[in-house]
Amino acid sequence: MFERFTRDARQVVKGAVEYAEQAGAPSVDPEHLVLSVLDRRGSRASFALAALGLAERGESVRAALAEARRRAGLSRADADALAGLGIDVSEIVARVEEVHGVGAMSGDRKDRAWWSGRRTSFGRGAKEVLEKSLRVALARRDRHIGDEHILMALTVRPGAPAEVLADHGVTYESLTRVLYGDGEAKAG
């Protein structure tokens, strides 16, 4: 499948691996793909993000993703559902971090890479996003998978990355309108 990726899409995947390795994460996850897409310049995904007003709010997305990672990747919807059962995720995070340090629930291990000798692998969520990006490209009758298809796939997979993007006005519908719509580059 990777041979069908454009140069921009390959750069997103490569950047996601670098983000995961820098964080000491056990695998490349969807949030690493989001962070890498945010770094792109001069690509279809960067055009769409700029048209949706996200170019100047990238740090807000990064902060929201970091907060979700602190909650072990739970979205706000997940945390709210647990709160309905009487489980206070914020309290659990605070207690764990009190004992083990800030970010202990993120799953990142800064010391893991030195002894493993292996490159970071792709987690199930990131694999699902990449597979979905193929389906998005095929549905759009595009010959190649671009970084815009990865971005669109990130918006439809349930979880914190899609929630954070939606909170910033980046949804599948808004991306479709900007990338394939009637030429309007306004979406919120």
UniProtKB/TrEMBL annotation:
The keyword Repeat applies. Residues 2-188 form the Clp R domain. Pfam families: Clp_N. PROSITE patterns: CLP_R. GO terms for biological process: proteolysis. It comes from the Bacteria. GO terms for molecular function: peptidase activity. Keywords: Hydrolase, Protease, Repeat. This is Clp protease N-terminal domain-containing protein. It comes from Streptomyces bullii.
